[in-house]
Amino acid sequence: MTVRLNAAGLTDVGRAREHNEDSIFYLVTRDAHDEPLGLFVVADGVGGQLAGELASQWAVAAVRDGLRDLLSPPGPMQTAPLDPERTQNLALSKVETVRLARGDSLRSRVVRAVQSANLTVYAQARERPEEAGNAGTTLTMALVRGKQAIIANVGDSRTYLLRGRDFRQITRDHSLIAGLVASGNVSAEEAFTHPARNVIVRSLGREPEVEVDVFEEHLHAGDALLLCTDGLWEMIRDAQAIASIVSEAPTPLEACRGLIEAANAAGGADNVSAVVVRIE
After folding, report:
1. Rounded distance, CA 197 to CA 202, Å?
2. For 252, which of 12, 28, 73, 261 is 20 to 30 Å away at the CA?
3. pLDDT value at residue 183
C-alpha cells in the first residue's frame, strides 16, 4: 500500500539565548520510481554564538548536498527558518533524478553524507579560525523512501518514533551523561540536573573522521517521526507529554508549534528545534 509523507519543521531561539545555533532542513518529494521520498535533518551547533550557528548550517547543507542526486525536482523545498538569511545557503536548486549505483545502499549513502558533513565543518572551522575555530555540531537525520527509514545521529540531537501509544527514542545520545545513565551511575531523573549533562563526547567537526550511528526502521501508516534538539527534550522531560503533542496536533506544523511552545513554557533555556514527519 502506498504511503504519503507529510512533514513540517520549526526552530526557535528560546527564552534564554540571544543566538539560534540550530538549523533544520526538510524536503518531501518522490523518487525515480514515484515512491515518496523525504530528507529530514536537525543540527545543534556548539562552540558558541557564530561558531555553532555556522557549524549547524554547514552540516545541514553538506548532508543535503551529499544526497542531492536522490532528490527529484517536482516540488519546492519545504523549510521553516526563523531568519531567512541564516539558511539562505540551504536553498535547494533543481536537480536531476538518478538511480542508486549498483550495490550502493541508502544506508551507505546516509553514512557518507554525515561523514561529509563532519569533514565540511572540520575544514571550514580551520579555514576561518577567528569566527569559527571552535565550531562543532550535533546532527540527527532521517532519509525515508516509502516505508523504509534510514536514521543517523552524531551527538545528542534525537530522533523518536511514535507508533500508536508507543513512543521511543531511536537514536543514542553521544554524551557523557548518557554513558553514566547507561552504566547505572546516574539515574535518568538525575541526568537532567547533573553537572556533566551538557558534555558531548561525539560531534561533527572536531576531528576529520567521525563514527556515525545508523538505524533502520520499517514504517507503518499512522507512524510519526520526531527529530529534535536537546532544547526540546531537556525542557519537556516527560516523554509521554511530547508524544501527546505530536499525536494530538492536527498537522505536523501544529505539532512543531506545540512542542516549541511547551519547551518555552518550561523555561526555554536553549534553542529548540523540531521536525515532525507523519506517514499517512
Report:
1. 14
2. 73
3. 65
Q: What is the C-alpha separation between 16 and 132, in angstroms, rounded?
A: 22
Instruction: State yes or no: pLDDT of 166 exceeds 80.
Output: yes
**Residue range(s) defining the domain that contains residue 14:** 5-279
List pLDDT tens digits, range 93-128. Answer: 222 233 344 346 899 999 999 999 999 999 998 888
Selected residue with higher pLDDT from 133 and 245: 245
Beta bridge partners of 226: 160, 276
Coil, helix or strand for 55?
helix
| DSSP-based three-state secondary structure for 212 | coil
Q: Which carries the bigger pLDDT value, residue 208 or residue 197? A: 208
List, in sequence order, the alpha helices (H) in the chain.
49-66, 106-127, 129-132, 176-182, 230-233, 239-248, 252-265
Q: Distance between CA atoms of 139 and 201, rounded to whole angstroms?
A: 13
Question: What pLDDT does residue 267 have?
Answer: 96
Tell me whether strands 272-279 and 148-154 are parallel, antiparallel or unpaired.
unpaired
Beta pairing partners, 22: 44
State the Cα–Cα distance between residues 16 and 64, nearest whole angstrom. 30
C-alpha cell at 255: 505539532
Nine cell digits for residue 207: 576531528
89 burial via Cβ count (<10 Å: 0-12, 13-18, 19+): exposed
Phi, psi of 265 (to 5 degrees): -65, -30
Among 1-15, 18-32, 165-179, 258-272, name the one with the lowest average pLDDT: 165-179
How many domains does one find in the chain?
1
- Number of other CB atoms surrounding residue 34 within 10 Å: 10
Whole-angstrom distance, CA of residue 61 vs CA of residue 91: 9
Strand, coil or helix: what is 63?
Answer: helix
